[in-house]
Amino acid sequence: MLASGVDGAGARPAAGLLVGAGRAVGEFVRQVLAVAEAEVRKLRHDPVELLTRAVQPTLWLVVFGQVMARVRAIPTGDLSYLDFMAPGVLAQSVLFIAIFYGISLIWERDLGVLHKYMVSPAYRGALVTGKALSAGIRGLTQAIIVYLLAVAMGVRVRLTPVAVGGVLLSILMGAAIFSTLSLVVACLVKSRERFMGIGQVLTMPLFFASNAIYPLSIMPRWLQWISHVNPLTYQVDALRALMIQGGQAAIGLGTDFAVQAAVLVALLWVAAWLYPGAVQ
Predict the structure, then answer these.
(1) What is the DSSP string of 71-133?
(2) What is the separation of C-alpha 23 from the centre of its chain, rounded to a whole number of angstroms?
(3) What is the C-alpha to C-alpha distance for residues 96 and 113, in angstroms, rounded to an integer?
């Protein structure tokens, strides 16, 4: 009887800890979704932004893609150049949107919104994760645009549920990675002019030091080393395998998603740590 009473007394604190942890996780998720919903609402109020975002992928696919397909200077294996390039254009579109996402943090600081966030009981990690999620949702609009363009141009798009689901997951992760990197930069530089300058400096090296428009195999050795530490490379590799009929992952789908997940977690941690200092 005594042993039974001791066991029961020990179980109650453990159950209480589990309930408390569950509530904390639930509150964290609720805060993440609230921040993401507030950010996505801005997009709903400015539908013209969706149209302007269609310009860049259209130019890359319709102009650059068709010209390079005629030249046939880049070896793409069994894929046509347009098939090879379409996932890279999608990843590039997501990158170009997400990499400048941090400027919203600077605007929020100047308007006093960021200070209100900081004095609220919200988790700092939830604020950063919510913004990353909203950037991922914005990136999904690019998938719709690129898919429609690709189908219209005869790209052999894979439309099975598993493939489309994998593409959407990769887009969410890629947009979250680069938007969180953008938030880290915004926390450090704290001025719009410097932020835009650094964003411009980051965008093109990330794009050209990846496998978006040419395969890793034709890169010089030094560029291959750089591309292997570039998260965009892993996103493009996953998209090419999932999005295109006959597409294959040169690196491996498991590795692609594992690297993206690891980079995202690391950047979320850094951004949450730096976030309070952005108020100053």
Answers:
(1) HT-S--TTS-HHHHHHHHHHHHHHHHHHTTTTHHHHHHHHHTHHHHHHHSS--HHHHHHHHHH
(2) 28
(3) 25
CB contact set of 137 (below 8 Å; sequence gap of 6+) = 36, 40, 172
CA distance 108 to 188: 15
Spatial separation of the C-alpha atoms in residues 221 and 80, rounded to whole Å: 25
Nearest by Cα to 90 from 181, 179, 167: 167
Confidence (pLDDT) at 1: 47
pLDDT (tens digit per residue) in 35-49:
777 766 766 666 666
Q: What are phi and psi of 244, to 5 degrees?
A: -110, 135
Q: Which amino acid is at 277?
A: G
DSSP assignment letter at 277? G
Quote the CA–CA distance of 242 and 253 in Å, as a whole number. Answer: 9
Amino acid at 36: A
In the chain, where are the structural domains located?
2-279
Torsion from C-alpha of 201, 206, 209, 213, nearest 10 degrees: -120
Q: What is the DSSP letter of 276?
A: G
Angle, helices 253-274 vs 161-189, to 10°: value is 30
Q: Are 132 and 179 in contact (CB under 8 A)?
A: yes
Q: Which residues of the chain have pLDDT under 50?
A: 1-2, 6
Residues in the chain: 280
